[in-house]
Design goal:
The protein is of the alpha/beta class. The chain folds into 2 domains: 230 residues, no CATH class; 195 residues, Rossmann fold (3-Layer(aba) Sandwich). The chain has 19 helices and 5 strands. Strands 2-3-4-1-5 form a 5-stranded parallel sheet, with helices on both faces. Helix 1 runs parallel beside helix 8 and helix 3 runs antiparallel to helix 4. The protein is globular. The N and C termini lie far apart (84 Å). InterPro entries: DUF7708, NPHP3-like_N.
């Protein structure tokens, strides 16, 4: 079969092999649309997304259904304002997914006409369904958000796709591959939603690996488009001049370079997905759940950390000194629930950590903040918690990786850690061994020292007592020892706040096991919940 690019009426075309892939994808999408339209699990609004032809059309579509959906969500949640914001945030993210992936679809529509026109409808359908149900089907939504982040800046690469040379031919196949992988993921994820609730749960339990495989292929394919496009730019510097790239576009291109490097680091840290938006949504859900528990499951006579009580707590000596001192420090809050609720899964001091996370996330100053709600994650090993903290901080300081020497040093340290973990797994030993912990600790010190010393780095952890594997609890002590080490050794100013449920881990009675060499840097505060007079 010939693989030459064939012009049709003077217009450049994909080669026969790539056209066959696109034609097959169109046929599969038509069948998928038929199945979706015949399925009673989808609303009229969701099915109407199948007819959308562009990202702009999607924005108008989502805006027109926002009010109705907000009312529906409000009837299932407390507070119409919170419901409206949640749906609006999902809508904005969904539009960004379409907007970032549209350049690849447009290239396919241009060079494979009449094929490719159905794709935007397929993508619109999935992001609509996934965004509406993001609170219950978090895995698919998180994956879409990560794909969105990887696709930033693809419209710039669309502009350089115009030459007839070997590299350009190679790029066209990479684009077709990315298109086909993403559409396949959309259809597979869409089929997941055709199942009833119980069947969907069973599919999630036994079929998550298949979705993970599709998602991984999409992300790898998008990265291949990036790498090939960047190579094309470097081989033809005149292209940049001819395109007359504006500062904003150049910044977008630079951001895509940064994201590529962050993706490489994240992969070596063995983190599958991370999205700031999904983490903030997790935070909001946790706040809602814990407030509900305190309001309705606990006696109303018990002391609460909220309002002026929270403000008073934050003004007490230990907390105030930790927050405002000029040196790196760590505050460990050990909370003991009142004996009436000592078996509760919630800790009465958790609102202190949640309030800090919320206020720091909204703060206008540029001080970086990373947080981890240990009890709300399936990933609870010490290395998983620390790795998530590190990638959060790196994403807030990604421009420093433009210094190739600094990036190479960090990459080498992370790769060394990854190799140690791989060796442990191959030898059948525990995944988070002592050597791996030490190497990740070195990576953490490296990441923190990349920050400007004028910044204060905030790390907030809730329920460190839950940092453990199914059988072993040493992870929580390992994590705390690492954080103590970092506070004492780091060259920049770091503030760590950790909340612990004392009934689950009496850390205040084991402070000597954290290997703290400078007690002034690590402060414990043990607080027992009392009954109030009211």
């Amino acid at each position: 079969m010939s693989h030459e690019t064939k012009p049709v009426n003077g217009t450049k075309r994909f080669n026969d092999q790539d056209l066959t892939v696109i034609e097959k994808s169109d046929a599969e999408q038509e069948e998928f649309h038929r199945i979706a339209q015949a399925n009673s699990n989808f609303s009229k609004e969701e099915l109407s997304a199948l007819r959308i032809q562009s990202a702009d059309d999607f924005e108008k579509f989502f805006g027109s259904t926002l009010a109705a959906k907000g009312k529906f969500e409000a009837s299932h949640r407390h507070g119409t304002g919170r419901a409206g914001r949640a749906i609006q945030n999902s809508g904005a993210s969904a539009y960004e997914i379409l907007q970032n992936m549209e350049p690849i679809v447009e290239i396919v529509k241009t060079f494979a006409a009449p094929y490719g026109g159905i794709a935007i409808g397929t993508i619109s359908f999935l992001v609509t369904v996934a965004s509406y149900r993001a609170r219950t089907e978090q895995l698919i939504w998180d994956t879409l958000l990560q794909i969105r982040d990887r696709a930033v800046g693809l419209k710039l690469f669309r502009d350089i796709y115009h030459d007839n040379h070997e590299l350009d031919e190679h790029l066209q196949s990479k684009i077709v591959q990315a298109y086909n992988c993403f559409i396949s993921f959309c259809m597979e994820a869409g089929k997941y939603y055709t199942k009833k609730g119980l069947r969907r749960w069973a599919k999630a339990a036994y079929g998550a690996t298949a979705l993970d495989d599709y998602a991984s292929k999409v992300q790898d394919a998008i990265l291949e488009v990036r790498y090939t496009s960047e190579e094309l730019l470097m081989k033809n510097v005149d292209t940049i001049k001819k395109l007359n790239i504006a500062d904003a576009s150049y910044s977008e291109l630079q951001e895509s370079h940064d994201n590529n490097k962050l993706d490489e680091i994240q992969k070596l840290l063995e983190l599958s997905t991370y999205s700031k938006e999904s983490e903030l949504d997790r935070l909001r859900t946790y706040q809602t759940d814990i407030n509900w528990s305190f309001d309705y499951d606990w006696p109303t006579t018990l002391q609460r950390i909220q309002g002026h009580q929270l403000a008073n707590f934050q003004n007490e000596k230990e907390f105030y000194t930790w927050r405002h001192s000029n040196q790196s420090s760590m505050l460990i809050l050990v909370g003991y629930n009142n004996e009436q609720v000592c078996l509760s899964p919630d800790c009465w001091l958790s609102p202190v950590a949640l309030d800090m996370i919320t206020s720091l996330s909204k703060a206008e100053e540029s001080n970086p903040c990373a947080f981890y709600l240990v009890g709300r994650h399936e990933s609870r090993l010490s290395t998983q918690v620390l790795a998530s903290i590190l990638i959060q901080l790196l994403r807030q300081n990604s421009q420093v990786l433009r210094d190739q020497n600094k990036y190479n040093e960090l990459y080498a340290a992370v790769r060394k850690y990854n190799q140690a973990v791989t060796l442990q797994v191959e030898n059948g030993r525990q995944k988070s061994g002592r050597k791996a912990n030490k190497l990740l600790q070195d990576v953490a010190l490296h990441v923190l020292n990349l920050f400007d010393p004028h910044h204060t780095i905030w790390i907030i952890l809730d329920r460190v007592d839950q940092c453990r594997s199914e059988r072993e609890t040493y992870h929580r002590k390992s994590l705390m020892k690492t954080l103590v080490y970092l506070v004492e050794k780091v060259e920049v100013r770091v503030k760590v706040l950790a909340v612990v449920n004392g009934y689950d881990w009496k850390l205040d009675e084991q402070d000597d096991e954290l290997e703290c060499s400078n007690p002034s840097r690590v402060v414990f505060r043990t607080v027992h919940q009392q009954e109030t007079d009211s």
